[in-house]
Specification:
The structure is a homodimer of 387-residue chains.
Chain A: E1 5-10, H1 18-31, E2 38-41, H2 45-50, E3 53-55, H3 61-65, H4 87-96, E4 99-106, H5 108-123, E5 129-134, H6 150-170, E6 175-180, H7 187-192, H8 195-198, E7 203-206, H9 214-225, E8 232-236, E9 249-253, E10 259-261, H10 264-276, E11 280-283, H11 288-291, H12 298-316, E12 322-329, E13 335-342, H13 343-346, E14 358-359, E15 363-364, H14 366-376
Parallel strand pairs in A: 1-2, 1-4, 4-5, 5-12, 6-8, 6-11, 7-8
Antiparallel strand pairs in A: 2-3, 9-10, 12-13, 14-15
Chain lengths: 387, 387
């Protein structure tokens, strides 16, 4: 006999739709007339370790519905990587709050945590149902067509880059360099290349999967600028040089001992000014890439909701040790459904951007847009360009 | 007897709604059954000097309507400051294309140009009607309640800062520093302080009108961070230190010999990391602040349209030497109307942010929001914060 309550936790960086999955989970439990408490961990693993939970059981339906328009994490998140010694404390909290259904909404690290909690509960004979809800704007989880959070981040990159491209070509006094999030995975930055299709501004795009030769990059920028139609250059924050090191870093070391990359756009802009003698300015929307609700993708909002809801249905019907995964078909029209995949196979694997989708080092091929356009979703803007 | 055609030109940096004014002007001329040609200067003053005009007379109504959703300048703009020797060339173009109605849509410099063209035409006995259409996200034109373009830039700053504040407080692992446009005027950055009202994250805001003592700034940041609820710091790109110099500059010298400020957020972030030992990250949405259509203000879109339309009505009824200005009332509800003010009084004056609206150096008082909220316009987001 397991516990009778639900616990939901967020792990890692938020997305525009992580709260949508929370809404889906809470509303699914309510529609199933779930009789236990619905708890959320305050600030993710930190809240679990501290026994600091938020009781959502009686939060008004109107407030839960408002999660739809709320970016970041409404319950708080953290970047704490659990150590082996932490897991017994996690189990203590689960027992103390009589938790029978545990949902962890996050990316790779969170799925690893989820998997370990499931294994430990099984070893200790605890009838705990553990389901992972996928979330990462980086889109780097395996065994799922894509991740909730990616479509909105991709839509932000696609449309904001188009808007920057329009500005860059309407007043072509400088090369505009824009930096998008993605330390190791270029999925989001790739979406910024849609600006080349929605505007008449030349666009060069550089992803972290492909090491760049800075001299070649500058020469390509010089040639593109010489066309006289303005120029937008989009780069991933984690862009690497031929030596394998990030072109720029923040000077901050993360919890895993790695120096955090960033400032890449400024680095490229400085080189354009200094080495090419061309005016340039760097933009870094940064966290807005995962927080700008006005650019949230409809498809992403729906799927994030469904992922949260599917997790609750799965756990309450006795499933455990799985992550919700999105199965998608793109022909004749886009359609997706939720299924379950083993946590053991998701944890510690990473899906990087296919190198064959990058053309000439700085253009993104049709294959990516065939994949991503349905996820970016909704009506794309049509611009009036009269000049 | 003057010329029979219209010429419209854009000057300086675009806004989210400068194309709306173009739409208003073209549609007004069409609704008045204007019989001449409707020309636009390709890339502003550059196009006028080169005699390079775009004929908009027969552009389909559907394309003109699409100007509404198009950021940047659909006809192109430039930052060229006209020299005395340029004005006779401008007049040559106006004569060559038989222009009788000249509209210049821009900020301070453009109104100065507009004024000089009007004076010169009068001296030469040319029956030219010259009307300025105001435009600047900076909101620094005098003799108008506010400028078209400001409301949208303010809405972008207000909502994007709120979204960053939610992220900063949901995952409080770093001080988030965000830089907003404004080299001399803090109007836009002031709007970012709305984040303190829409979220529960502490927010400190620094405007270029008030020189900052960097030690005091860091000490205020340290104290605010110590509250443990995350922290958002918003700064104008043109923020100055006690020595009167920008805290950071781009290394680029503009056409007027001034070094262009910028990189201010990164400068503050570096100081937070180095001097306070607190993690920090800098964001710089940059040009998105004037190009992100998803954040355009409804009020601003309407007024920009009306300003373009009013300019055409005024010129076609014989007025000249004026700028369209917005008269606004805020009680009992917000209402605005268009009127005309003398170009001579607008050119070369600048409206800066009232120092008395800044509290304790880094908070923005109610007086500003009484002024700005109707311009930011529309429904403000209501967030679900459960933690």
């Amino acid at each position: 006999m397991g516990g009778k309550n639900i616990l939901i936790a967020h792990g890692g960086g938020p997305t525009a739709v992580i709260n949508r999955s929370l809404q889906g989970a809470v509303e699914a439990a309510r529609s199933l007339k779930f009789g236990g408490k619905i708890y959320a961990a305050r600030f993710g693993a930190e809240g679990i370790l501290a026994g600091d939970l938020i009781d959502l059981t009686d939060v008004p339906a109107q407030t839960i519905a408002r999660l739809d328009g709320t970016p970041a994490s409404a319950i708080g998140s953290c970047r704490r990587k659990l150590a082996d010694a932490d897991y017994p404390i996690v189990l203590d909290t689960l027992k103390k709050f009589d938790v029978g259904y545990f949902f962890y909404n996050g990316g790779n690290d969170s799925m690893d945590t989820c998997h370990k909690v499931d294994e430990l509960a099984k070893r200790e004979g605890l009838a705990l149902r553990v389901i992972g809800i996928p979330k990462t704007m980086d889109n780097d989880l395996v065994l799922t067509d894509h991740c909730p959070g990616f479509g909105s981040a991709a839509r932000f990159a696609a449309i904001s880059a188009s808007e920057l491209a329009l500005d860059a070509s309407a007043l072509p006094i400088h090369v505009v360099v824009a930096e998008y999030m993605g330390r190791n995975a270029g999925w989001v930055t790739a979406a910024s290349a849609l600006a080349a299709r929605l505007t008449n501004c030349p666009v060069l795009t550089y992803l972290p999967e492909l090491a760049v030769d800075e001299d070649k990059m500058l020469s390509d920028i010089e040639n593109a600028w010489a066309q006289g139609r303005g120029l937008l250059v989009t780069v991933s924050e984690g862009l690497r040089g031929l030596d394998g090191k990030p072109l720029a870093d923040t000077g901050i070391v993360d919890g895993f001992g790695h120096v955090i990359p960033g400032g890449t756009a400024q680095h490229v802009t400085d080189a354009i000014i200094r080495k090419l003698g061309i005016k340039s300015r760097a933009e870094k929307p940064g966290l807005l890439g995962r927080a700008a609700m006005a650019y949230a993708s409809e498809v992403d909002r729906t799927e994030a909701y469904d992922a949260g809801s599917a997790a609750v249905y799965a756990a309450l019907s006795g499933r455990s040790g799985s992550m919700v995964s999105i199965r998608a078909e793109r022909t004749p029209v886009y359609a997706s459904s939720m299924e379950l995949v083993p946590l053991a196979e998701v944890a510690n694997a990473e899906k990087t951007f296919p190198l064959e989708w990058i053309e000439d080092g700085n253009r993104i091929g049709d294959a990516f847009f065939d994949y991503a356009l349905p996820l970016i979703g909704g009506q794309l803007p049509q611009y009036a360009i009269l000049r």
